[in-house]
Each structure stands twice: as structure tokens, then as C-alpha cells.
Design goal:
By secondary structure, the chain is mainly alpha-helical. About 90% of the residues lie in helices and about 0% in strands. The protein has one domain. It contains 3 helices and no strands.
Length: about 100
């Protein structure tokens, strides 16, 4: 009895993943595993809820990272603009200095 219940318990844990990953309807999978359609459907919904929560958490992390990267990008663009203006200024100064020494 212990072996059979362990196998059945393992099947119950894997069944929602089987439905979600293979995108198969609940009824055929439930029949294959000798489970109630309602039980498997509930398990699938609970599994999808957990996946949605994980996706939401990852999405929040990505949004934070995206905000930080955009801020860093703005700073770098500002620094680049300042360096361009400085290079232009010093290039003019060098050109003016050469012309006056001639």
C-alpha cells in the first residue's frame, strides 16, 4: 500500500505541470492518471497562481533594474555631452592659440 500511495502522490504533484507544460486539456490528463478532473483542475489553477506570482516578482525586479539602467544611461549621456563640449572648446582654444603665434 505504501508504494502505490507514493506513486499516486508523485503523480498528483506532477500532473499540474504536465497539463501546463504540454498545454493539454485537463480531462485527458486526469483520465490517464486516474484522477478526478476537478481535482486536477484545482491543482492546475493553484500551480498557475504560483507561476504568476513568480512572474510578477521577476517583473518587479526587471522594472527596478530597467529604471536603474535608464538613470545610468541618462547620466552617461550627460557626461558624454559635457565631454563633447569640452573637446570643442579646447579644440577652438588650440586653433586660436596656433593662429596667434604665427
Amino acid at each position: 500500500m505504501g508504494r502505490q500511495s507514493r506513486v499516486r502522490e508523485e503523480s498528483r504533484r506532477k500532473a499540474p505541470k504536465l497539463v501546463i507544460r504540454t498545454v493539454r486539456p485537463v480531462l485527458p490528463v486526469a483520465k490517464e492518471l486516474s484522477m478526478s478532473e476537478k481535482t486536477l483542475g484545482n491543482s492546475v489553477r493553484q500551480g498557475e497562481g504560483g507561476q504568476k506570482a513568480q512572474l510578477a516578482a521577476r517583473s518587479g525586479q526587471r522594472e527596478r533594474e530597467l529604471r536603474e539602467l535608464r538613470c545610468a544611461n541618462r547620466e552617461l549621456k550627460l557626461e558624454l555631452e559635457i565631454l563633447r563640449q569640452a573637446a570643442t572648446y579646447f579644440a577652438r582654444e588650440t586653433t586660436v592659440a596656433r593662429e596667434t603665434t604665427r
